[in-house]
Design goal:
By secondary structure, this protein is mostly helical. It contains 25 helices and 2 strands. The N and C termini lie far apart (about 175 Å). About 30% of the residues are buried.
Length: about 700
């Protein structure tokens, strides 16, 4: 190695190089001042040449070390080089494979794009085909009629299977008519339309004949029309709807035939029922049964007195007749049962029974008409409800007329105000029931019936009022203090009318009752004024008023009713007048003296002799007179409550007058100092103690 070094540096002038190196170092030193090693060398004063040689030796050592290491690892490096060359070949092959793969992917991408385009095209074609298929399917379904359905319509039996086929054919006809303008150029429409029209005519003819045959079955009186309606007609109501929509002329023929037959069907049944009800009628009142009728007898054909029939309990008294309005489940009268029992009934029960039968049959018939003769899809000039009313009117007009004649016959001869008013209330209930059932077809019948009933009711009450007006007051003689039969008849009639008007508050009833009340009051006043005995007249009036109020109270009416409050006011005024009259009879001297003395302007003008005379007279007979008053009232009034009230009123008035007398007496003699009365009057307390003894005499 030293020889190699020498060879390497042979021929070079190292001195010059050293000088140059020193010079260069000196030149570079300023720039290398920052190098830490250089600074260290310079600061230590190291010889740079030696140091340079040292460095060169170190570098040579390192080079030798690296060459030795290379020689030692030469095999491994060659092996590594071989492996690198092998990897390079592999990578080159892979590069070729990837390039080929890239080319293949490009081709696949092109294929995928082509497939995607084809897929989109196929999807669009499929959608178009599905849409077209749906439209074609609708057209085919709407146009094509199955051969089996055609054979059934033309030759098959008219039954449920026929109904199904007819519904299907009707759908085809409806589709063709709706879409004819849209698809009229289609050959299928052009070919099928005439065939469907012929099929429509064939079906209409067969359905028409089927319905006419079934309608003719209703001619028999033994046929239950409602059963046939529900089991046949409603079951096959589409047949008639088909005729209404597809063959109106045949539908009109079916409708007119049904109207004609059912008109006579109901007419025969209701006519028979009305005749049977007429035989069950029990007459309640006749022309003579009025509030103001003469007492207890009529003249017979030969002019002799004939006792009146006493089956008059229900003429004025409502009694149990009101139960006709209270039945929770009212049923019509069964003629066979009622005839066998010979059960005579008042007219209102017969009237209710007829109208119940009419309402039940009318409700069922109207509902049937709405379902059978009104097609929801038909194009008609009038509404379905108007059509139903028209058909119903043609069918039920004779039956309704029978009911009106039935009522008119009764009203022309009846004088039973309660019966007429009961019929009015029955019609009110019937109106509510028809409204609940939503059957407006009988509205005109209800209105016409009310127009017959109300005038007759008013006329009958006018007869009662006129009968009271015609009652004579009698000759001016002794009067019977007991109430006349007119009062009881009026009281019972008034109570009955009030019961029937409860909850209705009909002004006509209240007004008529007020007029009748005024006439009865006038009649009682005439009777009282015609009496020569004023005391007996007042007793008569009180007994009459008391009877009226008793009957009204027995029927549950209180002072809230105008009828009760009015008569109570009359009774109170009459009782007060009677009290004054009774005092006039027994203590007239006391009453007259008190009234005259109180009119004096100066107490000194009152006669002391008069005071003493009154006091002595009163002292002598006051107990006997009070007893006489008690006996008179007991004999005059049999009603315990009324007699007690009247006795208290009379004795109360006596205490009032006697107290006033005592006051006058004390003032008159107190003014004259030292003066004493000839006779001292009995003390007021003594009189009151005596009066208390008569408190419970009734």
């Amino acid at each position: 190695m030293p020889n190699d070094v020498d060879i390497v540096f042979e021929g070079f002038d190292t001195t010059d190089d050293l000088d140059d190196s020193i010079g260069i170092s000196e030149q570079l030193l300023p720039d290398e001042q920052n190098d830490e090693l250089v600074r260290h060398v310079l600061t230590k004063g190291v010889d740079l040449q030696e140091y340079s040689q040292q460095i060169e030796h170190e570098l040579q050592a390192m080079e030798d070390e690296q060459l030795s290491s290379y020689e030692q690892n030469e095999g491994a490096l060659l092996e590594l080089d071989s492996e690198i060359r092998s990897c390079d070949e592999v990578l080159g092959h892979m590069e070729k494979l990837l390039a080929n793969f890239k080319t293949s992917l490009g081709a696949i991408n092109t294929d995928i794009q082509a497939l995607q385009s084809d897929s989109l095209s196929m999807s669009q074609r499929l959608k178009n085909r599905v849409v077209a298929e749906k439209q074609l399917d609708k057209i085919i379904q709407g146009v094509v009629v199955e051969p089996q359905a055609v054979r059934t319509i033309c030759d098959g039996e008219v039954n449920e299977k026929y109904l199904e086929c007819l519904i299907e054919v009707n759908k085809k006809i409806a589709y063709m008519r709706v879409h004819n303008k849209q698809h009229h150029e289609l050959k299928a429409f052009q070919e099928v339309m005439p065939e469907l029209d012929r099929l429509r005519l064939k079906a209409s003819a067969r359905v028409r004949q089927f319905l006419l045959d079934k309608i003719n079955d209703l001619r028999s009186l033994n046929t239950n029309a409602h059963v046939l309606q529900s089991s046949v007609f409603l079951k096959y109501r589409f047949f008639n709807h088909f005729l209404i929509e597809r063959h109106p002329e045949a539908a009109v023929e079916v409708r007119d035939t049904y109207i004609h037959i059912m008109r006579h069907y109901y007419l025969d049944h209701f006519e028979t029922y009305q005749r049977g009800l007429t035989k069950l009628e029990r007459t309640i009142a006749d022309r003579a049964d009025v509030v103001g009728m003469e007492e207890s007898s009529k003249l017979s054909l030969f002019g002799t007195a004939k006792p009146m029939a006493r089956d008059r309990a229900n003429v004025f008294n409502l009694g149990s007749r009101a139960s006709v309005l209270d039945a929770e489940d009212p049923r019509a009268i069964v003629l066979s049962v009622a005839s066998e029992a010979s059960d005579k009934r008042p007219f209102e029960e017969l009237f209710r029974s007829y109208n119940l039968a009419l309402a039940d049959n009318a409700s069922a018939e109207y509902e049937f008409i709405m379902q059978f003769f009104v097609s929801p899809k038909a194009r008609q000039k009038i509404t379905g409800s108007d059509m139903a009313r028209m058909v119903f009117g043609h069918i039920f007009e004779p039956s309704i007329r029978i009911g009106e004649v039935f009522l008119k016959t009764y009203l022309e001869s009846t004088h039973d105000a309660l019966g007429v008013l009961l019929c009015i209330r029955i019609m009110t209930q019937l109106t509510g029931e028809l409204q609940r059932r939503q059957v407006p077809a009988l509205d005109s019948y209800v209105n016409s019936t009310n127009m017959l009933l109300w005038p007759r009711f008013q006329a009958v009450l006018d007869n009662h009022i006129e009968s009271v007006k015609r009652l004579s007051s009698g000759r001016k003689s002794k009067i019977d203090t007991q109430p006349p039969a007119t009062v009881r008849r009026y009281a019972e009639l008034a109570a009955s009318l009030l019961r029937l008007n409860s909850g209705y508050n009909t002004h006509v009833v209240a007004l008529s009752l007020a007029r009748l009340r005024a006439e009865v009051q006038a009649y009682l006043t005439r009777r009282a004024d015609a009496s020569a005995d004023q005391h007996a007249a007042l007793v008569f009036l009180i007994n009459s008023d008391d009877l009226l109020l008793t009957v009204l109270a027995e029927n549950g009416f209180t002072e809230r009713e105008e009828e009760v409050s009015s008569w109570k006011q009359v009774l109170a005024a009459t009782v007060l007048e009677f009290a004054e009259s009774e005092l006039e009879r027994h203590f007239g001297y006391l009453k007259l003296f008190v009234v005259d003395a109180e009119q004096q302007s100066d107490i000194g003008q009152i006669s002391s002799d008069g005071l003493s005379h009154v006091a002595s007279t009163f002292n002598a007979e006051w107990r006997a007179q009070i007893s006489a008053i008690n006996s008179s009232i007991i004999q005059s009034f049999s009603n315990f409550r009324t007699g007690t009230e009247i006795l208290h009123a009379v004795l109360g008035q006596l205490i009032i007058y006697y107290t006033r007398f005592h006051s006058l007496f004390d003032k008159r003699f107190a003014r004259r100092a030292g003066a004493t009365a000839v006779c001292q009057p009995v003390g007021v307390q003594n009189v009151m103690v005596e009066i208390k003894k008569y408190r419970n005499n009734f």
